[in-house]
Amino acid sequence: MSNFQPTKADKFTFGLWTVGWQGVDPFGTFIRPPLDPVEAVTRLAELGAAGVTFHDNDLIPFGAEPPERQRLIDRFRKALTETGMTTPMVTTNLFYHPVFKDGAFTSNDRGVRRAAIAKAMRGIDLGAELGASVYVFWGGREGLEAGAAKRAGDALERYREAIDFLCGYVREQDSVIRFAIEPKPNEPRGDIFLPTVGHALHFISMLEHPEMVGVNPEVAHETIAGLNFVHGVSQALWAGKLFHIDLNSQRIGRFDQDYRFGAEDLKEAFLLVHLLETSGYGGPRHFDAHAYRNEDAEGVWEFAAGCMRTYLALAAKSREFDASEEIQAARAAALVEGLAEPSVGTYSPEAASALLGEDHDLDRLAGRGYHNERLDQLVVDLLLGAR
Amino acid sequence: MSNFQPTKADKFTFGLWTVGWQGVDPFGTFIRPPLDPVEAVTRLAELGAAGVTFHDNDLIPFGAEPPERQRLIDRFRKALTETGMTTPMVTTNLFYHPVFKDGAFTSNDRGVRRAAIAKAMRGIDLGAELGASVYVFWGGREGLEAGAAKRAGDALERYREAIDFLCGYVREQDSVIRFAIEPKPNEPRGDIFLPTVGHALHFISMLEHPEMVGVNPEVAHETIAGLNFVHGVSQALWAGKLFHIDLNSQRIGRFDQDYRFGAEDLKEAFLLVHLLETSGYGGPRHFDAHAYRNEDAEGVWEFAAGCMRTYLALAAKSREFDASEEIQAARAAALVEGLAEPSVGTYSPEAASALLGEDHDLDRLAGRGYHNERLDQLVVDLLLGAR
Amino acid sequence: MSNFQPTKADKFTFGLWTVGWQGVDPFGTFIRPPLDPVEAVTRLAELGAAGVTFHDNDLIPFGAEPPERQRLIDRFRKALTETGMTTPMVTTNLFYHPVFKDGAFTSNDRGVRRAAIAKAMRGIDLGAELGASVYVFWGGREGLEAGAAKRAGDALERYREAIDFLCGYVREQDSVIRFAIEPKPNEPRGDIFLPTVGHALHFISMLEHPEMVGVNPEVAHETIAGLNFVHGVSQALWAGKLFHIDLNSQRIGRFDQDYRFGAEDLKEAFLLVHLLETSGYGGPRHFDAHAYRNEDAEGVWEFAAGCMRTYLALAAKSREFDASEEIQAARAAALVEGLAEPSVGTYSPEAASALLGEDHDLDRLAGRGYHNERLDQLVVDLLLGAR
Amino acid sequence: MSNFQPTKADKFTFGLWTVGWQGVDPFGTFIRPPLDPVEAVTRLAELGAAGVTFHDNDLIPFGAEPPERQRLIDRFRKALTETGMTTPMVTTNLFYHPVFKDGAFTSNDRGVRRAAIAKAMRGIDLGAELGASVYVFWGGREGLEAGAAKRAGDALERYREAIDFLCGYVREQDSVIRFAIEPKPNEPRGDIFLPTVGHALHFISMLEHPEMVGVNPEVAHETIAGLNFVHGVSQALWAGKLFHIDLNSQRIGRFDQDYRFGAEDLKEAFLLVHLLETSGYGGPRHFDAHAYRNEDAEGVWEFAAGCMRTYLALAAKSREFDASEEIQAARAAALVEGLAEPSVGTYSPEAASALLGEDHDLDRLAGRGYHNERLDQLVVDLLLGAR
Q1: Based on the number of CB atoms within 10 Å of its own CB, is B37 exposed (0-12), middle (13-18) or buried (19 or more)?
Q2: The whole model's pTM is what?
């Protein structure tokens, strides 16, 4: 397997909670022992990862006293230093504790909302302390089951208030931290606010400091709703808002599966890798996934290695795609670059009247074929190595 | 049935294509005869509707010569005048003709894109001529099946170019027309650009004249992706962007069904009506639906009457909801109004340090129940009249 | 609320695990304290339920010694006696313990399979001891995530072997117990074997003693796959195989929500109640649902009362449906009873040649409308009390 | 592309309606000209297909007089003879004509049901005339939108009556024809009866001559409901009921897409090919798909070639899978063959008491890992050629 061996230059990162997932699900209990964050760092470094990410409580148990907190940070930082690993992203757990059962920033209880914002502030401090440049908000409990229980407009207002306040907090500290909102349509709530990349991007445009906030799209989350993930990421890139990304895999219309990257829908995984590799995105390739629940502790590292291996294999296919004359000819036949050309330019009365004066022979224009079957088949051939 | 008899004050409108749907589907041919737009106007007026809407080609067949065009407009306008009906919204058919098989504003063929923009300009003229104030863009063909065939970023760029150009055209004419973008996740394309209300709202924020453009959300379209429609509409209202709305019903994760309003998911239909009736939305209640395909021509009017009747029945329930002391007490127990209260206010160093200095006793806060079962049950009781 | 007060004659039952659900989900921990089975029996009896059901480990903790087991059974039985409650159904927990992470009857490890069958035998004994007449198999862990890890044909063979063996065990004991298989498409496994009512019914037809085995369809499970639950139950009834039923509610294409009966899709809930009330089904109306996670301990009883209340309200609508002359006229116009009439009878050469000799004027037959809009609108009117 | 060139031995067949699809969809009209069945035969033969299949009206227009019918059959048969192509399967169009808008065998109108059965009899005659051995029933219109409009039990009864009658007809003629039922969950009807492979298999078990009837599963149809297609086919094979198969691709939870085989979900496509190639299934590999709608007439043949090419590429991977020592070792580590071993054998009191007497140490058994990550990654590596 020498070909697809990751190195730090590949910028692969994993959440501590991913390799550390103990397998609790709605119908079953823990199946793997707790994983020491230090071991996570060490093993991931050995496999070729560049960094780890974490929720506050992945590193520091809920309610730990300051000295214990410091001890845990110190030994974690030591492991990072020894392995050359980084922590480019951190986040705060605003979902596990029962207090968040009705939401964090959008709980109907103002006391909970204040507690949540304070917890996020401390999470930001922790991130700054460990050198993170991105802080992710996944509002998993920001939602509802009973439609009459919250006005969604109120919830959006509270969500905005929280993010604006936290932006103020970061700005005051002259921190490099930027925020990335991670949308999800449902689970654990019946419906979650900011359900898709689109809703999150729009929400950001309504903030006081939109320039500080981007998105952290996750393959599984858009896929739950059956949306095209590559298109969601493209819209974020188009707006300059792809601040981070969560890679995994998932089948449409199911519970949150968080499978190994590339385990489902290889064509979409390829198109995603091609997009990331050619778009100038320079951030981490972050895996937010976990090993199948029937794995033992060692299987977790097979899982982690597999995420990176498949990414690299697809990145190689991506370069092959761009280099292949046959594929480029098929792209030309499909007029792919034609879509990069302006249609009418900026409006002017002259442009308008010129356009209206043209003879648009629709029947003639309709005769063209777009040769998408051949192009798509060449993608399949490329993936299968069937050349 | 005297209680739920619509009047023009209810602002119910129907697309000509809805009552005029002839039942072609992917597996079967026409099952109802063509419906004369004048008959549509007359029958809908008799049933209590306030107006009709149309695509250019619903009124004027593709390729009609100017005199024929004028004749058709004249007799249509005469029917409107005689019945007191209005045409608050118009749109352009950019999907039926084979020329649009690869898209309209985002076809890979620049000639098609130019033809589409010109057709939209003429559609806008027709709308202005008939007094429309909203012009809808439903980009049904703006998408793809083969992921490699279009870069989505290019598509968004072309989409923006087209809308910016058309905004320029409207501004030049001192028209009252505003645009409303109608998102849809898929069908007829495998994936459609601007798949949800969120993506469309964000797209609007990227335009040259965002103030001229809002959204036209459709129940069925968000529901195909399993998204909460009430939340989508709420986000649009929150942003001041609900310019129009398409009412119908649909089951999640299926082909586009466009059923009679209220035929599916009565609780969500109720929550939607409650939102519209209490949010200050003053626009049309527009039905974009059609009669079941096994209806004959007369059944179409049962369908149309049913859409309005169910809306009115739910609007009555909505008033009952607001008037019921029992329900208001349940809302109070669920802290619904608590979410309207600011959590922390605007950021200041003082506010931040006050917040961090508070003792947030999470375990105590976690003890509260939110009484959502009782509130939701009261909604069900209200709907069923089970009091 | 005097009208919809349940009594034991209504045969409402609840799983101990439903009111006892403590709210663990993939992203959060316990939010409600454990519920003593005796309290569950008492409270449910007060609310009007007729019985409870349970998994072995709902009553008897995993690994309890025989004396403790007996003590727990005795006090539980005492509570039943004092309240007049019954335990018509029992089942075995073959999913919570880590040993079942790869399946129970279909684990790839033969040792696990044997342990699972032995545990089911003891569960059957416990059921017999407490007078249950139905024993349910929900094979939540019988499935896979990695398609290459099991041949589905092997899995079906092992599943059949287990059920055949357990049928043998029951037959030997002259027990009245019959088995009911509960299908589910996915969650907690990526894909579960016997994913729908149809697959389970077919599986039963392949058993050694098909007469001993029926199905236990659950609203949420068929709905996850977007299937029509009423049709699934109808197919089971058609085959004489509706041995038990799990009532709750759920949105299509999501994680398993197990909401209060009637909380979602009131029209389908009505059609289901109408089917159960008119089909001769005499078994329990069993609720397999739980209170929203943001409820406190008292909210659980609101939830339980709501399940029964909505069922009774819909049962009243069901009687109204059958009694309404207007609705019966609409049914006649839709030719509903026409479908109960034989089309051609049993095959004979004479019948065949008579049929082929007829003049089937398709165009004339095509002219008929089926008046489904009116019928469906009357159902909506009935539900909303909009008459 | 010399490697994956199909030959008649590969048994690839196409429906005339697949390559002949003219692109009508709910929002657009014809985009490709009609295709002469003779040209379809010739072109497909050149590409390496072994046969074609058809609905009666694909070959013989609705209402054609006997001489015209004969002429069309003769020239079609001539094309078959000249090319060595076969027609292993035929079916009857019971969905396109308006008469079937409420169903065919389950229309509420008895006259329609009789007409449908007669049309099927004539379709069977046509199939026999052309040497078909399988006759498919796809009941696309057998369903409903308004739940109160049909009792599903009545519908199943009428469905059974029709199939029993047609079995009688075939038996009388000493024909080799066997029936294959093709399930689908929805589209064009809101809900279709016999929605999945499971429901159809169970229905067959209720027939008078179950031995004459099997299933024709279609990738797209099970996938619409998000079911695991390989498991559905496996259950059919397990029951000896895989009489035919429809290959294509589709995304979950969407309108019926009928994409080129392998265009979506390559891993599932691989697992399916592996199953078909190793299960002893000897029937046609039948493609029921169509070219993307933005293709011109020539693109159709790219599409057809692609279906076969991808199948052959995956069949080669399938052989590689079975030959690879690394993969077979990973299968052994995952205990795949362990599932083929009986768990407990046939019931006997002795076997029962031996089993109950064993010490099942669940905690020890729970310690095992199933190594599914490695096995699944090897499948991905195999598909990508990343070895």
Answers
A1: buried
A2: 0.98
